[in-house]
What does this fold into?
Amino acid sequence: MQRYYIPTARELARLQQIQRAPILHHSAESLTGAASIRAYGRKDRFSKANISLVNNHLRPWFHNVSAVEWLCFRLNMLSNFVFAFSLTLLVSLPEGFINPSIAGLAVTYALNLNGQLSSVTWNICNTENKMISVERIMQYSRIPSEAPLIVDDH
It folds into this structure.
């Protein structure tokens, strides 16, 4: 499951971060030019542009939430199968074959399996998603610098 989920979540997180930058840029431009926007009567155009940018950002977010639900459903199913198997095994064993305290411990661990699986998978995915920010910083650091605005004559 991780083999399918983690690459998908990583790419969706990358798309979300890429789509977030235009929203921030547009908001900053709108704030600095608010007086001009109102003076020229362009509020509707800027509002529509903002809504479009937010919608573009929400598309990968929606798919990311859907991927999380996909993963949670499958982890729950896996945990339920393990729990059902362990209970069936414990019930079908002859009496006295296994100590009741060990059986209770097995049931307790089987109940906690769902939370543990979800926690481990979430932490791995979250770590990989945070590394996307580092990857983007590395990409920006490799971009060549622009020429200076004023060039001194030699």
About this structure: The mean pLDDT is 84. The radius of gyration is 26 Å. The chain has one domain: 2-141. Residues 43-92 form the longest helix (50 residues).
